[in-house]
Design a protein that fits this description.
- The chain is built from 18 helices and 21 strands.
- By secondary structure, the chain is α+β, with helices and mostly antiparallel strands.
- It has 4 domains: about 50-265, 2-Layer Sandwich (Beta-Lactamase), CATH 3.30.450; about 320-420, Beta-Lactamase; about 430-525, Helix Hairpins, CATH 1.10.287; about 535-695, Heat Shock Protein 90.
- It has a 5-stranded antiparallel sheet with strand order 2-1-5-4-3, with helices on both faces. A 5-stranded antiparallel sheet has the order 11-10-14-13-12, sandwiched between helices. A 5-stranded mixed sheet has the order 16-18-19-21-20.
- A hairpin with a 6-residue loop joins strand 1 and strand 2.
- Helix 2 (about 15-80) packs antiparallel against helix 7.
- The protein is flat, with a radius of gyration of 49 Å.
Length: about 700
């Protein structure tokens, strides 16, 4: 590759040289910029990691200080309300404040800026009698607490009793009409009269807050932006030089002062990333690769054959058929998908083959059909449509059942390109959707009939009841009542006839209402199932709790049709939704009685260790084998005279199978035409070890 490029350059290809040089400079500058950006990102990551680590330290430090500040404020309030407290009482109170915190050295109270009480006394005797007015080191912090009325944290400080500590002070306020423990009259002095302080062991405090551990990895500085003194900021810990090293800064959330935590890694920020040389090596490799790629592209651009191969590969990769013809309708190129769709011979699809020859081969192979037109007429019409309109959109229905969408587009140079998209599956889906829509329309017609019939009965009975005086027995009774000497027994007979007629009308109304309610409940169940909101509540129950109500209610219906209703049931327990399982059996047994004209209906229950099988068999006409699955589809009904005569919406079996599956069971059917059908409901007898999410669907 590079030999060819060098040869081209030796012959004076200055443009290539210039382009190559510019690209080299651009790549080098880009690599340098990426190197700087990589380092900036590395430093930012280091700062982020530092911030996140110190955030834990900050939160721990802040928590400890907040806790001490709150305890100190509560103690100051207590002392202000109890100015005459004794040392023993103070020690008891201070002991509770100190608790198990071994970082607290002592707790002291100075009513008149002189420490008069301290806890514990042992080891802290040197602090008793300390006069803050005479202590230049501690006086500024004391005055700040008195002037601001807020807690003040100061340190590290050399303690009067020895050692180094931190001191948190709170102003001490007494009630206006009380005096201090020193006996002073402060009736007209409502301002602060003293100081309460907690002395913390400096090193233990650093250990407790995590500062000591963090200091092993970072250069730290904890300082106050609002210093106690007047000559600059106060540092609680660390070297003030950290401020000049572009540190990470975290602010403490203290109510009494503004403190900051500043940190840099030990030894300062790294001057390069840990993987900088590796990254530079990668960038060098990438830059070299880009330069090599550029040389390759420049050489490749001069080769038309390679470009044509790339184009051909791209077209070949299409999932749809592609074809291109020149302005004289001769083939330029096509892909394998085009050949596959029309099952054309390979030797035919060579550049220069006329469009007519390709189409004729399709007719000859039985793929294409011209309908009522001749082949030549069909070809001429199709070419004319594309040439005149500039674009052609149509569908070809091939002899093997495929549906091909044809899209041809005429280009400005007279060439034409075409796509051939296999729409077979889409057409099938469209047909299925149309069939579903038609089924839904049929169902709506059926449903309107099913709803109209009971409503007509209900309205008719209601109108007759509203005009009960016009009924035959009513007229006869009224006529008899108008006769003064009417026989009481005759009146009783007439009244009973009228009541019997009204009772019969009410029975028809009740039956129609129950039928209407059943239809509505079925539609609601279907809607809940499709929405995934039907609730199943399984419990352990006996099979008799499910079977007995079904048998009691449907025995009368079977007897009315002259059918033998046989029941054979094992005793055992099942883990099901009792109400929904009864609903399934009501539907299965009810359908068996409805569609059986003569013979018997048999309900058999078999229970084993894991499952219970409820089988409903009849001696009806049977169900065709090719409709076993369809009968469980919503709104589906077998098109027969018996079905139309029996009525129904076709939702019952769909609801029943869904209810069975939601309980972890199955509902299947086996049938023999002319002999009858058997529906088998299989349900679990025990709760599943792994809860089934479908139970609360």
């Amino acid at each position: 590759m590079f030999n060819k490029l060098s040869k081209s350059l030796r012959y004076g290809n200055k443009f290539v040289w210039s382009l190559f040089l510019c690209a080299t400079v651009l790549i080098v500058l880009s690599a340098y910029r990426l190197d700087r950006l990589s380092y900036a990102n590395f430093i930012q990551q280091v700062r982020t990691d530092t911030y996140l680590e110190l955030l834990v330290v900050k939160e721990n430090f802040q928590s400890v200080v907040h806790e001490q500040s709150l305890a100190l404020r509560e103690l100051a309030t207590f002392l202000g309300e109890n100015p005459d407290i004794t040392q023993a009482e103070f020690s008891d109170r201070a002991q509770k404040v100190r608790g198990g915190n071994d970082s607290i050295i002592n707790i002291a109270v100075a009513p008149d800026l002189v420490i008069s009480m301290i806890y514990p006394i042992e080891g802290n005797e040197g602090a008793l009698g300390l006069n803050y007015r005479e202590n230049a080191e501690q006086l500024p912090a004391v005055q700040k607490a008195l002037n601001t009325g807020r807690n003040v944290l100061a340190g590290p400080i050399n303690l009067a009793q020895g050692g180094v500590g931190l001191i948190m002070r709170a102003p001490l306020y007494y009630s206006e009409n009380q005096g201090s423990s020193a006996g002073q009259n402060i009736r007209n002095q409502p301002r602060s009269q003293g100081i309460v302080s907690v002395v913390l062991d400096y090193q233990k405090f650093l250990d407790q807050t995590g500062i000591s551990q963090a200091a092993t990895k970072y250069d730290l500085l904890i300082d106050a932006a609002d210093p106690v003194g007047t000559d600059g900021s106060v540092s609680l810990f660390g070297d003030p030089a950290v401020k000049d090293q572009d540190p990470v800064k975290l602010d403490f959330d203290f109510a009494f002062e503004n403190w900051h935590l500043l940190a840099t890694p030990k030894g300062g920020w790294p001057d390069r990333s840990t993987s900088q040389w590796e990254e530079r090596l990668v960038m060098a490799i990438v830059a070299s690769s880009l330069l090599a790629l550029l040389g390759y592209i420049l050489w490749l651009a001069e080769t038309r054959k390679s470009a044509r191969m790339l184009l051909s590969d791209g077209i070949e990769a299409l999932n749809d058929g592609f074809v291109m013809f020149d302005k004289d309708d001769r083939l330029i190129l096509s892909n394998a998908k085009y050949q596959e769709l029309y099952n054309l011979p390979s030797e035919l699809l060579r550049p220069g083959t006329p469009f007519k020859d390709i189409v004729k081969a399709g007719f000859k192979g039985g793929k294409l059909s011209s309908g009522n037109m001749g082949e030549e007429e069909w070809i001429a019409k199709r070419v004319h449509a594309r040439r005149v309109g500039g674009a052609l959109q149509e569908e070809h229905h091939l002899a093997d059942g495929k549906v091909i969408k044809v899209s041809d587009q005429l280009m400005q140079n007279g060439h034409s390109v075409g796509l051939r998209v296999d729409m077979t599956e889409f057409s099938k889906a469209k047909a299925a959707a149309e069939a579903a829509s038609e089924a839904k329309s049929d169902f709506m017609g059926l449903l309107s009939h099913e709803l109209r019939t009971p409503l007509t009965v209900i309205l008719g009975v209601a109108r007759l009841s509203a005009n009960a005086r016009l009924l035959g027995p009513s007229k006869e009774l009224l006529a008899a009542l108008e006769t003064r000497d009417a026989d009481p027994k005759e009146l009783e007979v007439l009244a009973n006839r009228m009541f019997d007629q009204l009772s019969g009308m009410m029975d028809r109304m009740i039956q129609s209402g129950e039928h209407l309610l059943h239809l509505i409940n079925e539609m609601l169940d279907i809607a809940k199932i499709e929405a995934g909101s039907l609730t199943i509540i399984p419990t352990v129950c006996d099979t008799s709790e499910i079977v007995d109500p079904v048998v009691q209610q449907l025995t009368t219906l079977s007897s009315a049709k002259g059918l033998e209703f046989q029941v054979s049931s094992d005793q055992g327990s099942v883990y099901v939704d009792k109400v929904r399982t009864r609903q399934i059996l009501f539907n299965l047994v009810g359908n068996a009685i409805k569609f059986t004209e003569a013979g018997r209906v048999k309900l058999t229950v078999t229970v084993d260790e894991n499952t219970a099988v409820f089988e409903v068999c009849d001696t009806g006409n049977g169900i065709p084998a090719d409709e076993y699955d369809s009968i469980f589809d919503a709104f589906y009904q077998i098109d027969s005279t018996a079905t139309r005569r029996a009525g129904g919406t076709g939702m019952g079996l769909a609801i029943s199978r869904s209810l069975a599956e939601l309980q972890g069971g199955t509902l299947t059917v086996a049938s023999t035409m002319g002999e009858g059908s058997c529906f088998s409901l299989t349900l679990p007898t025990t709760a599943p070890s792994d809860p089934n999410p479908g139970l609360d669907a």
